[in-house]
Design a protein that fits this description.
By secondary structure, this protein is an alpha+beta fold. Helices cover 67% and strands 14% of the residues. The chain has helices at residues 2-14, 19-29, 31-52, 106-172, 178-214, 241-262, 302-368, 374-409; strands at 57-72, 86-102, 267-279, 282-294. Strands 1-2-3-4 form a 4-stranded antiparallel β-sheet, with no helix packed on it. β3 (267-279) and β4 form a beta hairpin. α4 (106-172) runs antiparallel to α8.
């Protein structure tokens, strides 16, 4: 049973991680995504809170007061009788309700602003996810590229070691010089250093990927290759999250301006209250209803300055929206051109690598026939490996440019 369990654990730990699985784990575990979700929930609650304020509030009031002289339990009102109960210690218990009926549409603007803030938070949550998704895709792609380069160097190392054995044998038979052995051994050491360097880079990037996805240093095995569906996303610029945020900020600045205007209007409140006052074993009940008006007629230009600020913010938001829209559209066009460029570079790198392979094959034959030195052969062989690494990197750059275009155009 222990053997079975250990085998299952080993298989699970060495199972290749796919990009789809990585993105699903990212959505569940990434700390930035979790924080953005919390911020969105807070903003949503603030919106509901602001909506509820329009219904006013009930207060329960209570007090115990000790006076130096006796007081009536309730304010005196005609007709005044001689048997009014008085006490120097009064206890009051009551309830009141107050609501703003009108404040120049300030409250309705506050509610609208809260709704817009909630919408912005949700779009920012989406933007955070898209950003983290893109970062994951780039790291995943870079690690895959390095894994392929590492495999190439490993195969190159195997060939070099096989060649070393052949040359050592030929040296023993007097067919090759000792310098040929030293040369091949030197290239083996150089390639070994490259393998160590690539492995180090892979480990560093895997740590970064693990922290990005899981928020902790989790051991990642081999990554599975990516199958990319090359499709040109159809998008509406106005529906992209970043543009929607800028547009909503513009709408919010309009609401802020209207809110600044509301300070020039009067405020009308409605208030109702009921209370019982106790003293000397007696009780008096008092109730009242009031309609209150408050109008700020002069405040030394405070409202005017506030309105000017709101007007400037409105102009600023309009300019920012226009600027962002133009810049974002340009980014998308640049990303398309980058894809075209990387397709050309990838095709060119592929052609160069194929040509280098043929050159290496020819140089190998020439070396075996003693037409060239081992330096010439190893130079051709080394150039082939370099061009293979360039081809892998070119393919990786193409893949990342496609991921970037998807990131920019995802609604």
């Amino acid at each position: 049973m222990k053997i079975v369990v250990l085998t299952l654990i080993f298989i699970a730990s060495t199972y290749a991680l796919t990009l789809d699985k990585a993105l699903k784990d990212l959505e569940k575990n990434n700390l930035d995504i979790k924080i953005s979700k919390n911020e969105s929930e807070i903003s949503s609650l603030s919106k509901e809170q602001k909506k509820d304020t329009q219904f006013g509030k009930f207060n329960l009031n209570s007090s115990i007061t000790k006076y130096n002289d006796k007081r009536t339990l309730a304010p005196l009102a005609p007709p005044i009788s001689s048997d009014v109960v008085t006490s120097d210690k009064l206890t009051t218990l009551g309830i009141s309700y107050k609501v703003t009926l009108f404040n120049g549409f300030g409250l309705s603007n506050d509610i609208d602003i809260a709704k817009l803030n909630s919408f912005i938070s949700k779009e920012k949550e989406k933007l955070t996810f898209l950003q983290m998704q893109y970062n994951t895709q780039v790291l995943f792609s870079d690690i895959l590229s390095l894994q392929n380069i590492e495999n190439s160097y490993e195969k190159y190392q195997e060939v070099l070691k096989s060649l070393e054995k052949i040359i050592e044998k030929e040296f023993e038979y007097g067919k090759k010089a000792k310098v040929d052995v030293f040369k091949i051994q030197s290239d083996i050491k150089k390639n070994e250093a490259k393998i160590i360097e690539v492995k180090t880079k892979i480990n560093i990037l895997k740590n970064s990927l693990s922290f990005l996805i899981y928020g902790e240093n989790k051991k990642l095995g081999k990554l599975e290759s990516i199958s990319f569906a090359n499709e040109d996303n159809k998008y509406n610029l106005e529906k992209l999250p970043q543009i929607k945020v800028a547009k909503t900020n513009l709408e919010k600045s309009n609401k802020d301006y209207n809110k600044a205007l509301s300070l020039y209007y009067p405020t009308v409140n409605f208030e109702a209250a009921y209370s019982d006052t106790y003293g000397e074993g007696e009780k008096e009940s008092v109730s009242n209803i009031a309609l209150q008006l408050n109008w700020n007629i002069f405040d030394f230009n405070v409202r005017e300055k506030n309105l000017q600020k709101a007007k400037i913010e409105k102009i600023k938001s309009t300019l920012e929206y226009k600027k962002l829209t133009n810049e974002y559209e340009n980014k998308i066009l640049e990303s398309k051109e980058l894809i075209k460029q990387n397709i050309s570079l990838s095709n060119s790198a592929k052609s160069q690598f194929k040509l280098a392979q043929k050159t290496t094959q020819i140089e190998k034959i020439r070396y075996e026939e003693d037409q060239i030195s081992i330096n010439d052969y190893l130079l051709a062989f080394s150039n082939e490996q370099l061009l293979q690494a360039n081809q892998i990197q070119a393919n990786n750059n193409l893949l990342k440019s496609r991921f970037y275009y998807q990131y920019l155009t995802k609604e």
